[in-house]
TrEMBL record:
It comes from Zhongshania marina. Its EC number is 3.4.16.4. The gene is ftsI. This is Peptidoglycan D,D-transpeptidase FtsI. It catalyses: Preferential cleavage: (Ac)2-L-Lys-D-Ala-|-D-Ala. Also transpeptidation of peptidyl-alanyl moieties that are N-acyl substituents of D-alanine. The lineage of its organism: Bacteria, Pseudomonadati, Pseudomonadota, Gammaproteobacteria, Cellvibrionales. The active site is at 297 (acyl-ester intermediate). Belongs to the transpeptidase family. FtsI subfamily.
Amino acid sequence: MAKPVNAPISPWRFRIVVGALLVLALLLVWRTLTLQVLDVDRGYEFLQGQGNARTNRTEVIPAHRGIITDRNGEPLAVSTPVASIWANPQELKEAKGEWARLAASLDMSAAELSRRIERYSASQFMYLRRHMAPAAAQQVIQMKVPGVYLQREYRRFYPAGEVTAHILGFTDIDDRGQEGLELAYDEWLNGTPGRKQVLKDLYGNIIREIDAGEAASPGKNIQLSIDLRLQYLAYKELKTAINKTGAKAGSVVIIDSESGEVLAMVNQPSFNPNNRSQLIPDAMRNRAVIDMFEPGSTVKPLTIVAGLESGKYDPETVINTNPGYIKVGPKVLEDHRNYGAITVAEVLKKSSQVGTTKIALSLDEHDVWGVFNRFGLGRSTGSGFPGESNGMLPNRPNWRAIERATFAFGYGLTVTNLQLAQAYSVFANKGMFQQVSLLKRTEKPVKQQVISAKIARQVVDMLEEVTELGGTATRAQVDAYRIAGKTGTSHKAEAGGYAKSRYFALFAGVAPASNPRIVAVVTIDEPHGDYFGGLVAAPVFSKVVSDALRLLNIAPDNLEPEDPKPKVKGDSAA
């Protein structure tokens, strides 16, 4: 057999093959350059962007809200970590077979989930459930349903619940202040979220952190003037009194007279800020700073101040209240009985309308108004509480006689519980006025002398007689302490005049009378049965002030045994 002969390769064919290989190599190099180096149409930047868009994410780092504490550092409002489940509806609708299982894990029906997905079908984001416990949310994510993701957040929690609800207010689901001090100091309390770059897999799980980015900045803390121990005690006593009297509502405010700090502020009815599923709007109002009422006889001491300042009167000046009533214009103003000739001090002790009217009508009405104004009535206390009422202090160019008389014993003007407490702190502060504070003070407050220290002391001594035998407020007494204060029972205004059977029962006072440190005001709105301030509000004052004096370790100033407290109803009228 003949051997095969190897035909020589044609030079032109060789060149074509080599050229083709070179062209392919050049194309490969060119493609590599366009993908990795050169930024041409749909080049490396475009492709890197597309890749990053599918795997790189900017993760928000939630910032917790600042803590609110009481004056002793006890937490009143804290932020706890929670998790929210959200979804991309466009991805989730492709996993329809998982809907029933997903709905069950979220504690909702499959039909409800289906409706929500349909409603947001054109969107790329919707919440499935907010503020879940982190462990429960993690179980949902572990189901690896396409389009379902986890978002970490914080939720506000209030350890004292309804006891501090009216002061603190609450935040919304996005942790922004909506009521109370949460709203007033929202910018201060609210933190700044951080951000970081992370790499996620197909299921949204974080594989690794690419860039630490910007750290979250937590909100600033706030320390209130409130003493949580006293807040609890005042709340308990007020709630007990409201239940006992069947009253519509009530408030108690306690102030440290030295610093002007509010030690307790409670209201009834209240609400639980941790469970707002069945909120009643009427129960959410901080009545102590928002509700206005006519103060009745509790402002008679201010009229007495005007009388003492005029030089026409001193505590022993005799006022003839015979025959137990006085006619002013067409109106007849009556006392509970004919007290006859009594001193100015006894006018307060007996809460005599006739005596107060005679003093007021003997004075310049603008001088009386000036005292009320100097005591802070008719203007904000400066507490900074959202929605605080200014009250109403009428200032007429010409006063009718009946207007002068009724103004002197607390009608025709309105105050808030906090305003009245601030006014009584003038007596406790030796005649100096200071603004109240809901925040713990680190510096001494600015004080202004508005009446002389001598007159302030005289009025405190007269108010002490109100709580003694024969006065209208014997039920305000506190064992081992001297108490000074004034009862008030005011008719509630209604269309066309005043209601005949609806009242505000009040008591305002200071303790201990020898050197006042505590100022407290109690208001009971529409008590049933007994309605006099001495019968309804004074006992609440006695209990909460007793607690406050002992908690603050204030030394007793009356260690001599007291006479038994009388139970005669007439002695407890306002």
